[in-house]
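INFO batch 0412 | record 1 of 1 | parsing
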Amino acid sequence: MGNKRKRGAKESANGVPLSQKRAKTEAKTDVSAPAKKAAVDNKKYLLDKEPFPEQLTTTQERLREGALYNFLGSEDDTERLDAANTIISALLDGEGVSESVLDRHLEKRLFRGLASGRNASRLGFSIVLTEIIQQLFGEKDLSSSRYRGLTFDFVLNTLMEKTKPVGNISGQEERDHYFGQLFGIECFVRANVVFQEQERWEAIMNCLLKVAKKKVSMRSQCVWVIIQAVTQMKKKVAEQTLQKIADAGLAKSPEAVGLWIVVLDKFRDLQVPAKTWRDPLASKSLQDLASVLKDSGRSEDNAVDGAPKHKQGSWSAQLHFVWDIILAHFIKSSLKGDGTSDQFKLFWTRVVDQGFFSKGAADVQKFSGFMIFQKFLEGGASQPFVIDNLFSKNLMICLMNQAAKEDRYLHRAATKALKAIETVVEKNPDLVLPVLQELLGDNGAYNFDERTRSKTIEKILQHTQAKHGKLVIDAIRRLVLLTPEAEHAESHGRVYGEYLFKLTSVPSEELQPGETQEASVAGQALLEFAHSSYSSDDSLPALTEKTKSMLRGRFMAALSKFVKKPEDFPDFCNAILSIDINSVEMDEELQSELVEALEKLQSLMKPPKKSKKTDESRGPNQGLALLYAVAILQLYNEEPDALEVLGDLKQCYASLSSKQKSDAETSSILVEVLLSLVARPSSLLRQSSLRVFEAFTSLMTAESLQLLTDTLNAEESAKGQQALFQTEDEMEGIEEGEGSDDEDLDGSDIDSDVEFVGMADANGAEEEGENEDDENDSDDGEDEEGEDDQNLKELDDALAKVLQSHRLDKDKDADSSDNDSDMSDSEMMELDDKLTEVFKQRVKKMNKKKDNKDAKETVINFKHRVLDFLAIYVEKEATNALAFSLLVPLLQCMQATQNKAIASKACEVIISFSQALRKVRSRKDPIGGLKKNEYLELLQEIHAEVPKDLSHAHAKAASTANLIVISSLFYQDESSFPSISSLYAETVAKWVQEKTAFQHSFLAEWNSWMLSQCQSPTAG
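INFO prediction complete | emitting tokens
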């Protein structure tokens, strides 16, 4: 065994090496290259229209004929049509080929090609056959003059003979042959030659019925060929055709229904065979029609040969062509004004709704019903009578039930139907209103999206056009507010609010040249929100106080979206003006203030006369109008300080109107108002304040900016909250619980982060801050767990002291006691008082800690809002000298805060300032900066702040602030560089002498800036 040699991989069993096997890729390469070259060479035959020879005697002739018929079956339309044109010309152009040649091509090539399933053979061969048949038996009538042996019957019989399945062949090959027969027969019909002589059509009919009888699955295609021939028929021939169908036992079939409708549409007074359809769509026939069409989704492969009545086979997912014919019939009738709506409604209800969607209908029938619904929806979208009757009762019940749960058998079919509804409405926005009325009406459900667990209504509402906005809003309001059932009124009111909220997000339409601006859909929805949320009409059951409260919440959420864009301010203010003034009870003083505020709001909204001065005041006027609207809304919502805010706004209004007061006083009052608004946890107030501040940035003064920056140094504790909001009464007693509690709460929020490495990229600051916040949250959680354990221990100790006892698990450590005497009543009362006091102290301490934590969160949120203001200011007023005064307070804020998110945000404001300045300089805009000595003094202040916080974030912010000042001074006066360099040298020398620690990146970025100036003097 040990000496046995393994046979090599390339050796045979007897040790003889095997021949090397070619790689498949090489074989493909060797074959494909010549094949491609041959294909290119063969295309030259597409231009060769010489007549085909009698006999194929040369290789070139055989190659040419083979190539042309190969191209005739190509899937490429151009190649196929070019080949068809060449073959027809080579056979019939000029004197044409001899009869024997034409017969050979028909018999050996064209008829046999119809039975081929290769690529697009049937399509290409049908084109050539149709043209040949037309020239043989049509207007040219070549069969009478040139090809006398190729009679109609001879050609037809040849077709049937050459496409007849013979021998033991597979089922697919058999179907291919029968399809070949069917395509060949259709060529005769398309050639428009079957009605010149009566016998021709009879022969065609016999062939079609023979195929239909032999291959039941192809019966619908056979009848479809007959339907295509109806346009060529005369009345008598049509009557005979229907009689033949009836005699074959096919009258009560879906395809026969289609044939009857097409024939009767052409010949209204036609004499139909007895015991068949007089009119399939007549009311008397609908019962029979429903039973016939219910099986129109079956594929009939299993019929018994010779049976007079058709048998039904397996079900097919492909919808029968009869439904296209029925839809076309109703659309054609509607154009004639034949009372189509009533007739269609009766047909749809009796046949489709009660047939395909009844309780006893099978799943396959319901599936077909959804396909029928989709076909009529898409095909009849432009017909009002179709849309008005399509959403019938049983269909809607089935649709909602099947769409609601994923495990339902027809869930996918139902969701596909819902998607079809959305698509049709998207393509035809005029259908928004009628479709909504159907889905939310009697047959649907007002909470349709909830019932179906879809977003159908939401998506439909997004396609509402401004011209239909009022009608859509009226429709959804009428459907809910007139709900008689009290138990549904509240839930419907909630859904109503959601629909209005979705409408407020509909984007405004782009105006075409010459069009006038209409009220936007969102603006109209906001007005409806205002009417309903503050309605004083008690006659509508859906508008309960609970519903109104919910609507007001959604109204506030909708308003918060409108304040983000200045172009939406008018809609915002108009909604406030439209609120019913009697909807909220007020005393005379409040009523008077409200009326005065509404008048001022209307005054601010009036467009001023065009002038340079009014252009400058437009922004502040819009901002003040928005602020008035918010204050009025607060008054309606009975906010406690709404009256005080209105009083402050009066001063701002008077200042803007008369200019008697200074900008400093106006901006200071405005900042105080804005700070009072952002202190509230409201998205609307926050967004409104930001937009108002953005409108007034040009009026900000050093005093008003200082009001903002002073808040950044407030302690993040109860004491800081008291200082910011002057809440002495509320804060009494809380200070006692501060000290160590604050340390417990805040100690883990920020780490010293003193690692002397390069700074991270500024763009990652926000993400890094979020990650650090997550870490802080987990740290806080651990601290709270530790506090809980400590609190429990303190409680145990207090109880043990009062009860003079201990826990069971402390028996080993406890002193033994022989005093087991019972307590007296007085001792029991005394013990009860002591226990009560212990628990009171416990609750008081817990409340203090909760109050301290809430106070801290309030101050932090307030600082976030102030930093939002400063971010807006540095972006809009980057060229204003006052923006430089924010740098040092922002650095000091980073030092004072114990919250990483605040520190990160302050750093981002400084970076935004730097980016805004860079944009301004790139546009070569004039920049209003400081004087040289002011720049240098500010630079000294920044340098003084650098060592106070050694964290990476602070170093990055300080370095950025430093470069802002340096680049601004250098941009203003390049000769100031020696002064800047000297100041840096003094700072570094001082730090070295005093052994002051600092981040080395501060100097590294200064060096990088200097190098950039050497390479590009204008880079400052």
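INFO post-check: The CA atoms of residues 323 and 348 lie 12 Å apart.
INFO record closed
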